[in-house]
Amino acid sequence: MKASAILSELGLSTQADDGDIVVSSPIDGAIVARVRSHSTAEVDAALAAATAAHRRWRDVPAPRRGELVRLLGNKLREKKTALGHMITLETGKILQEGMGEVQEMIDICDFAVGLSRQLYGLTIASERPGHRMSESWHPLGVCTVISAFNFPAAVWSWNAALALVCGNSVIWKPSEKTPLTALAVDRILADAMAEFGDAPPGLACVINGGRAVGAQLVADPRSSIVSATGSTEMGRTVGVEVARRFGRSILELGGNNAGIVTGTADGELALRGIVFSAVGTAGQRCTTLRRLFVHESVYASTVERLKTLYGKIAIGDPLAAGTLMGPLIDAQSFERMQAALAQAKAEGGIVTGGERHAVAGCENGYYVRPAIVEMPSQTSVMLTETFAPILYVMKYRSFDEAIDANNAAAHGLSSCVFTTDLREAERFLSDAGSDCGIANVNIGPSGAEIGGAFGGEKDTGGGRESGSDAWKAYMRRATNTVNYSSALPLAQGIDFSI
Ligand code: UN1
Questions:
Q1: Is any ligand 1 atom within 6 A of the Cβ of residue 150?
Q2: ipTM higher than 0.95?
Q3: 286 Cα distance to chain centroid
Q4: Which PROSITE patterns does the UniProt record give (predicted)?
Q5: Which tens digit of pLDDT belongs to each residue from 398-415?
Q6: Which burial class, exposed, middle or buried, applies to 272 when counting CB atoms under 10 A from its CB (0-12, 13-18, 19+)?
Q7: Which residue, judged by its Cα, is nearest atom 7 of ligand 1?
Q8: Domains of the chain listed by start with CATH number
Q9: What's the pLDDT tens digit per position in 290-313?
């Protein structure tokens, strides 16, 4: 599928206009389209429209709100192929993963539809006679979603599907690197809304632009919830800014995810898990495996087999069948990778791979060989998240040492252990085990399903999105006490008789 065919299939203009955001494909560097940034006045108008839409949407019964998300899921099924191609074109991830990302959107829509009938509150035993206590959940307002380039559609859907069934309106500020995917999804949602019939105008929109646009959305008290995905540096600014006005933030920041291969691991399975997590999406997932701790008894064989597998990775055009690794997003990302590898060498690392890889017809794309770096100890480069396919590998002796090494990173997103020893597996998952939001056994740290809460601790920001009870972050909780007696007993037995 050519770029122009993908765009027209999704109803986007193929004509380059005078937009200030130039979108080029990381596949070959070719300009795909230009997109216009929104002005301050337009952002203000979007916030006003979203606020008004929320006031109408909160009165729509939640199961009916779920109907809109059901229709969205159906439209996504129809457009899966085209949207999957669009994601690949704009991010450079392989088509399997582009399609997988759309599937992730469909899955969260299904989840949210079910949820629309399950926004359960609680009943609470009151200490006073003739009183009833309960807890109920209510829509919050406008949910502003700031998403990153690497998951240009799924991250929005985790937030938007929940936010919509929870009775909120949604404003989406996508990465400047991937505005076309956002515009395509916005069109698909518009189709769903047209079929739905009476969705209020302004219920969902896309706002394009750079930092200034993002800052305006974040600072505005009408953004009741700001759900931001991106770097820790960005999250620190957004988190503080939203906290300053006592708004709610959901932060999904970086990850410096580790895996442990114990002496009892199923070697074949571990290797497959490691390679998918370290090399998939060209190392540009926040859940990418970046640090690997291998028990000394299996270290040499594991590293050797890993190097053999790395040598077989098909690198090239991500739209072509059989490719397992596409390009990095841009030149800057390539330079950061090279700088990290140079630092790793200076810190005693032995580097295999990591060099630029030529792909015929894609000379302007930044393709690299994935790198394995054998480290003598967990030095500063290893404790820094570099958004590229670099896997640092280190030997360990005791399992406690490996858990400490896992937890030594500033981030706390995802982690895993490969073991067939029940004690090791359970210890890794225990209170004294991995300190991450995601802890897995015998699968890699990436590629989570939508059913679980997604997010992590420490420098990852602490937010949770997607499954489990993540929906609660999109609603406000009210505790209700109803007195159905004709007396007025006070709590704690206080006597206040006049
Ligand atoms: C991200 O990289 O921001 O668990 C999200 C995973 C995917 C989502 C990654 N489901 O790897």
A1: yes
A2: yes
A3: 7
A4: ALDEHYDE_DEHYDR_GLU
A5: 999 999 999 999 999 999
A6: middle
A7: 447
A8: 3-253+461-479 (3.40.605.10), 257-441 (3.40.309.10)
A9: 999 999 999 999 999 999 999 999
